[in-house]
């Protein structure tokens, strides 16, 4: 047996917090929850779109009552649905025409993408297609990735951030960075639903402060070495400082990546990163050492092993991503890139032998001209690596497909560089939006991605790694 839950009134004090909890419980967009809460607060009432089991109803009723809602039960037979983000969703068909959201007939409120008004009607859609096929047994269509932001929208946010950061002597930077992420995340979509960023400026600020203290203690240790063992020992310690930082980079990257993923959600379900710092440290130390001793030939294998770590330890809910790349697959492209670099670097020594009497001015011009195809070649190499890494990435039965060519990759980066250079950085928001949209336009997911099996599984994290990443001027991003 089962029943519907009916929210008749709201007596809580914090409507914003209640809306967030309601959105997480029923996996709806924030503006949907706000619309429902406003409706209930005005005494109109709202009913869940589908019946739930009696056991789930009891859990949900206690939770909703604790938030401040007055809850009643009604109805008969139930079908299982996800309640409070703690149970798996049963497979259900997707209504492509009506889209996503919660519905319960005429009385329900359905929200579209963030920024769009609520709409009536519709059919509840679980995450993904649950492995279901389309009518007639045809295979499921690609699940697109979209970006809906504009340069103007991001520029307004960045402009305010620049002003407030200046007048607060840099302190507002962390809150401004959070606002930018909120905008970029909520303007990114997958299968028609937006992502959400739950990090706060306070978390970033705290992480930066802790990292600053750690860095200060490290510098204090160097001065202590000088006072105890003399000036020469202090100079040696200062020379070793960059190597210590490089040694710690994998540890810092893990903390930053873990924080950022743990604050990212889609349809109310969080991402997480579960990689261990010790393993990251081992992968990178081994990669650096073997690359040096093999004269660079281990580099492709090192890159693949690093990708297996970063992608394979990334989770959405309880399901992990999977990466199946092999170093030998990218060895040829890597060797061609290295060969091009060697040719350019040895040209100054070979030109006088090949062309006797060549002036220094002409030799310099020839060097500049040779760097142009090298840069273009690197763009093609980068596009090849992106296509390869994405093609070897799987999640819940789906395969990522990235189809950007080297020419397209070169044009987007070259034009972004020109925009930023000739506007003295003012076009940075536009360049950021263009890059995000480029990735979204060329990246999609094909196959039976069974997202209905994903359940919420929160992972603890801290902002310390994120603050450290900022301290080293190193941008760590989810690549989606």
Itemize the secondary structure elements and their pairings.
Layout: E1 2-10, H1 15-26, H2 30-41, E2 46-47, E3 52-53, H3 54-67, E4 69-74, E5 143-147, H4 151-167, H5 173-186, E6 188-190, E7 193-197, H6 201-229, H7 231-262, E8 264-266, E9 269-273, H8 277-293, H9 299-312, E10 314-316, E11 319-320, E12 322-323, H10 331-354, H11 360-391, E13 393-395, E14 398-402, H12 406-422, H13 428-442, E15 443-447, H14 464-471
Antiparallel strand pairs: 1-2, 1-3, 1-4, 5-6, 5-15, 6-7, 7-8, 8-9, 9-10, 10-11, 12-13, 13-14, 14-15
Helix pairs in contact: 1-2, 4-5, 4-13, 5-6, 6-7, 6-14, 7-8, 7-14, 8-9, 10-11, 11-12, 12-13
Average pLDDT confidence is 77
Order of helices and strands: EHHEEHEEHHEEHHEEHHEEEHHEEHHEH
Class computed from helices, strands and strand pairing:
alpha+beta
Q: How many structural units, i.e. domains? A: 2
Poorly predicted tracts of residues: 76-140, 473-480
| C-alpha geometry | globular
- Main beta sheet: 11 strands, antiparallel
Helix amount, in percent? 40-55%
Task: Output the number of helix runs.
Answer: 14
Which strand-content bin applies to the residues? 5-15%
Distance from first to last alpha carbon? 41 Å
Strand order across the largest sheet: 11-10-9-8-7-6-5-15-14-13-12
**Count of extended strands:** 15
Query: Over the alpha carbons, how many angstroms does the gyration radius reach?
Result: 27 Å
Structure description:
- This protein is α+β, with helices and mostly antiparallel strands and 480 residues long.
- It folds into 2 domains: 2-126, no CATH class; 145-471, no CATH class.
- It contains 14 helices and 15 strands.
- The chain has helices at residues 15-26, 30-41, 54-67, 151-167, 173-186, 201-229, 231-262, 277-293, 299-312, 331-354, 360-391, 406-422, 428-442, 464-471, and strands at residues 2-10, 46-47, 52-53, 69-74, 143-147, 188-190, 193-197, 264-266, 269-273, 314-316, 319-320, 322-323, 393-395, 398-402, 443-447.
- The strands form 2 sheets. Strands 11-10-9-8-7-6-5-15-14-13-12 form an 11-stranded antiparallel beta sheet.
- Strand 13 (393-395) and strand 14 (398-402) form a beta hairpin.
- Helix 5 packs across helix 6 (201-229) and helix 12 (406-422) runs antiparallel to helix 13 (428-442).
- The longest helix has 32 residues, at 231-262.
- The radius of gyration is 27 Å and the shape is globular.
- The model is unreliable at 76-140 and 473-480 (pLDDT under 50).
